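Hi L., both proteins are below.
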Amino acid sequence: MRFHWLLSGFLGVFLLCSPAKAGKIVSWEFEPEDNNLVFETDEGVQPKAELLSNPTRLVIDLPGTVLGQETVKESYQGPVNGFRIGQPESDTSRIVVELAPGYTLDADQIEFDDVSPTHWKVEIPEPEVSRIAATNQDPEILELPEVDLPTQLPGLETAAVNPVEPVEPVSADTSSSSSYVKATSNGFFIDIDGNRKIKIDSERDGDRLDFALEGITLPVDLADQSVAVNQYGVATIDFEQEDDQAVMSMKLTDESPDWIATFSRIKGLLLMPKGELPNSTAGVADAPLATVQSQAPQATELNLIEEIELVDDDTQLMINGDRQLSAVVSRKSNGIYQVILDNAELAEDFKGPELQAGSPVSELKVRQENTQVVLEITTRLRYRLGQLNTNNNEIALPIEVGVDPLPESDAPLLPPGFAKAPKESTIGETPLLTTDRPRVIIDAGHGGYDSGAVGIGGLKEKDIILPIALDVEEILRKQDIDVVMTRDKDVFISLEGRTDLANNVKADLFVSIHANAISLSRPDVSGLETYYYDSGRRLAELIHWSVLNGVDIDDRSIRRARFYVLRHSAMPAVLVEVGFVTGEVDASNLKDPDHRRQMAEAIARGIVEYIKQNNL
């Protein structure tokens, strides 16, 4: 049964009997692209969940369970930027899904599916850009569906419930840096909740400038703090809670300008100078918050980014603001670019581009990070970003063809005259390898007693992928590429054995070849799928694009997955599903040797192109 999470305001506390011998987490799986979380335990468990902020993160505690290993951490690109599972207490495991700065979740849209007391599924909605946060907002304690657990298991004692001790405020005479206060290139960012309707009164008395923020409640670990900043002629910023208002006091040096305070449209309090910032630091203490530019521009208000759109038949990406824009563009990896707009924020009615099928931009992510707007742009194969052009309140980023197109499927893969390299069996022994050639692992999945998927007419996966893998090997060897086969006969090789071989021979690439399957009642499902986990994204794109342009097959997209061979290979790794043995169209094609040869040539062509582009 599927349940919706409940809104905050319902204070739910879920307790579970604490066993003398704690249960264990048997498995977990989180897919950041689909925002799906699945976990299983060997004993019944009633989770507790909270949606926390600063940064936004979904925390799920599993009382009465142990992880049995060190904390597992994963990092991703995009709105969901982290996942971890650990054991903060001896009898409690914790799962945390972290969002990138500037993103939040709608708690109403989170769906929790208790398949059984030991098997849970969580569907997390697409994160959205955080807008104005309500003041004095407690963490959202989310109610989970109750499951049928015994109130007292045989031989187990009930856990004692200890009240949470209040956090004592830090003494006001303590001078320290704080995670709530950050120096920027044009002032300071204070990480507290508020909105632009809040009244802010200011008063200067000598070297002190006080701001009174009506209706603001400071975080308990910020109230009564004195934070040493030593930037822009400001020595310290003191914070104090006075009933229903917060007071913030800046201790200024002679070189400091006057300051104004305003809440961002997105989040946080901005402190900006009236006039130019001084070039030197205050020199009162020895704990600067951050390194800043020696000359900071005059700032009065953040530039509103109103719209980002693709124009001119998707050949230009246009960024529109309400005043003169500046940006820095960098390439994070092949095909992935980052654009940082400083002193900017997303407008409340911000409009992003609608990416159409066939657009040269395959993915565009926009997020707010303090006083910066950050774009992550992923171009499709053969495209790249050109030179940035600025024109007052507009920035244009040309999208250009960046690499030569792949050869047609019937074009030769190599110049005439290449001799076929001698083939060495890789089963049971490490083959003889050169040191100056690219080295590729070709992995034919399954084998031996493991037939893999069985489809229409008893078509076995292992019987169709081995011929394709052997053809790929032959083609690559003619390209003067060292090829190592995980198997070249109908034998079974474990998943660990496959990745150990790849890592031991220090391969440059790992390509696993499989065939897909679904219920025999769905013969209408056919098509190509290509998977990667971490560094294999570009390799997956090249192989996938090459197959689609050289083989008559439907496109079922490139996907990220946690397959064992992808996660445990030290080199860029992909898994190619060459079609569905349960699909009427694919099954017929996969029985055809000519079709399998075309598939092998296309896979090899993608591998060769990747090697050329990356100078392997």
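That was the first. Here is the second:
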Amino acid sequence: MFQNFDNPSDPSKSAARLAKLRETFPQAKIDGFLVPHSDEYQGEYLPPSAERLAWLTGFTGSAGAAIILEKKAIVFTDGRYTLQVKNQVDNSQFEFENLTDNPPEKWLAANLPKNRTIGFDPWLHTISAVKKLATAVDASGSRLVAIEPNPVDMIWQDQPEPPVGAVHIHPFKFAGKLAAKKIEELGDIIKQSGGDCCLLSDPSSVAWTFNIRGTDVPHTPLALSFAILHANGRPKLFIDPNKLDIETRAYLTQLADLHTPDELEQEIAEIAGFGKTLMLDPDLAAHKFSIIVNQQDGKFVEAKDPARLPRAIKNDAEIVGCRAAHLRDGAAIAEFLYWFDMQQPGTLDEIKVAKKLEACRARYGEKNQMPLRDISFDTISGSGPNGAVVHYRVNVDTNRILADGELFLLDSGAQYEDGTTDITRTIAIGEPSEEMRLNNTLVLKGHIAIALARFPKGTRGIDIDVLARNALWQHGKDYMHGTGHGVGSYLAVHEGPQGISRRSMQELLPGMIVSNEPGYYKEGEYGIRIENLVLTRGPDDIINGDIAMLGFETLTLAPIDQRLIDATLLTDQELHWLNAYHGHVLRQLSPLVNDDVRQWLTRACEPMIRILPPASA
């Protein structure tokens, strides 16, 4: 199993750990300390050695932060984790704030008393984040200071060692472009940005640039590492040599000079000391790097990671691989859904379901000679009220029986060498209520609106997010998360800069993959989400149109539970999309599954018809 179901959170230890942390304040000459959910690479998914926020507070979500003051402690989470944080964190020790509406810098500006000193670890906050924090703290009449070593590390006696997972070469047939060519093209971007060299601080960019993958963090094939690329010259890769076997070392030596991560600070200092201009992405690079440059009276230019946008725009080989991954994954999902439908209500629990789904994926991977390398995130297997917890992670303590009359929300994904998948289906257990069918149909209408969207060049995710919410809004409902996130190519399941949300400012470009996942959550009762991955295509001419339009190709292949759809609420266009999608699913998956699954799939994909109620006399 790639997923374990132990309970990683123990809020009972928070009080003692907070007390020990506060005991370090006098020596550090601080009145408070910031604890973000991040490491020196600023990644969403962290190795166990960097899970400081979880160790201190009990909160295990992928986005959050804490402010620890002498007599107050606050945990910040976004809308995905509103319920989870209250279940995991001791509310006698911590207060809760919304990371989006009232982030730490806003809270500090409004609440921090004067003449206080707030410490932070400069490795764990980006350049942009520190600017915001410093402005907020200064406005309150206090000051922000960088603290090393991290006081959490000083009191974390059994802190795990940093990971040394094996690195492997990502084959050209899946990468679609040689690493040497990528390095050359990124060098041109560095020149255009006015830099002499650039620090790649995001391991996803390093992995993409050098065509390598690793095993340092759960579910995302990253090798934690840094790289320095030059406008003219040979790159330098900073990676633990224990991660490299003979073949991988020989491959990388052809592309770059290899160094240990401990040598990076000296290299940055030398670049600054020689008067060279270093490119740093202020939203991705740790503030520590700006400190090193400034100490040498050097200069750096703030510019976007040059690999981020090319990485997001999938090439032909990556698109072919992604389609193949979704076809294989779809067959595994179909077999799972058939098995699920054959079970009686009350005989399954959330953990058993997650294990069965992973087994189906593993079997189809082996069958098609493309092994399941990992799941792309911990499976969200939420029945009844657990489904209302947006990023619910089942463990042995929260595990529920799937009961008759409930909804079951299953959000899962897979990592294959040719692609990354992410799919959510909401399934009725027994007979759903009319309220459930209504809300599910409203979510489906939003999903279809995104799937059918046509938009001109220059359109951003923020511009189309409303399409997914409109049907819910008409009924006074909404959901507190983005509609879609970018997805990598055998990389991170959450990939920027593209997305669909109220904050997604990146233009949607051909080749970008995003999720389409509106939802609805009724606290304490059920959750609904329908998610497919879509590929941005075009622009294409429109019959009788004036300008070419981009649109989406749906990649995910799995039936949507028709027991939860009220066809009378669908327009002709929406009903046509649903039936066309199910017809496509049936044609694509039927050759890959056995007779029993095929018969079930045929029933699950039957065209829906709109049966209107009889007219009154």
